[in-house]
Amino acid sequence: MASATLLKSSFLPNKAEWGATRQVAAPKPVTVSMVVRASAYADELVQTAGLVPLAGSNDESWCQGLDGLASREAAYYQAGARFAKWRTVVSIPNGPSELAVKEAAWGLARYAAISQENGLVPIVEPEILLDGEHGIERTFEVAQKVWAETFYYMAENNVMFEGILLKPSMVTPGAECTDRATPEQVADYTLKLLHRRIPPAVPGIMFLSGGQSEVEATQNLNAMNQGPNPWHVSFSYARALQNTCLKTWGGRPENVKAAQDALLLRAKANSLAQLGKYTSDGEAAEASEGMFVKNYVY
C-alpha cells in the first residue's frame, strides 16, 4: 500500500535511531505560555474547519474539512509535522441518529486514509459527548456502535491500523446523571469496549478528558492501568491537564512559578496513572471540581 510505504520510509525511526534521538534531544520544560499558545493555535485551526450543523439530523453536528486536506497535510509534512488529529462528536441526547454516526465514522476514516497517504500518523478522535442524563450503560451502547462503524470504514478505506493512534472518550455516565460511576466501573466498561472493538494492531489509545474533573480523569485512567492491556493506554487531556494551571496563573507574572508547579503536579499525576501507580495524596480541592459545560463548543 502507498500509505504503508510512506509511513515506513518517511519518519518512523528504527531502534538505533530512536536511541540516538533520545540522547541528543533534551526535553524542553513546559511553560504556562506554551499551554496558552497551544490553546490559541487550536482556536485558530477551528476557524478553518470544524463542527457544523448536520442537515437532516436531530440537531446534530458533523466535522467538515476533508476538502483540500491532502494538499494541506502535504504542506504540513514538509514543514515538519508527523501527526494529525481529527475530532468529531456524537451526542446521546440528540439520538444519536444513524446519519450522525455514519457521518462521524466516514469522516474519521477518510481523514485517516488521507493522513497516512501524506506520511502523517492520524490521531482518530471519536468523542461521545458528556451531555445528558443517561447512565453508563447507554454510553457503552452508543460507543460500541460508533467505534464499530469507525473501524469498519477505516478498513474500507485501507487504513493501516498499526499506523494510527486512537483518542476516544471514556465510557462514563452523562454529566447530568444522578447515578455516578466509580473509577473501577469506568475502567471496567471502557476496557470491555476496547476489547470488543479495537484491533490489537492499534499501538496506542490516548483518552480525552471531555469535561471530567482533573482528579476524575486521572483516577479513571489509573484504574484502567491496574492490569496488562494489549495497547498502551495513556492520556491526551486539555482541560483536565491545564485547568488548575491557568486558573493559578490568571495572567499575572507573579503567579508563573505557582502555575508551572500546578502543571507539573498534574502532568506527574497522569504519568503515574498511565502506569497504574497514581494516588490522590496531595491533590488540591480545585482539581476535583467538574469542568463539564453543557453544549460546550470549541
From TrEMBL:
The keyword Lyase applies. Gene3D superfamilies: Aldolase class I (3.20.20.70). It holds the Pfam family Glycolytic. SUPFAM superfamilies: Aldolase (SSF51569). PROSITE patterns: ALDOLASE_CLASS_I. Its EC number is 4.1.2.13. It is an enzyme of class 4 (lyase). The keyword Lyase applies. GO terms for molecular function: fructose-bisphosphate aldolase activity. Keywords: Glycolysis, Lyase, Schiff base. Pathway: Carbohydrate degradation; glycolysis; D-glyceraldehyde 3-phosphate and glycerone phosphate from D-glucose: step 4/4. It catalyses: beta-D-fructose 1,6-bisphosphate = D-glyceraldehyde 3-phosphate + dihydroxyacetone phosphate. One of its GO terms (biological process) is glycolytic process. Belongs to the class I fructose-bisphosphate aldolase family. This is Fructose-bisphosphate aldolase. The lineage of its organism: Eukaryota, Viridiplantae, Streptophyta, Embryophyta, Tracheophyta.
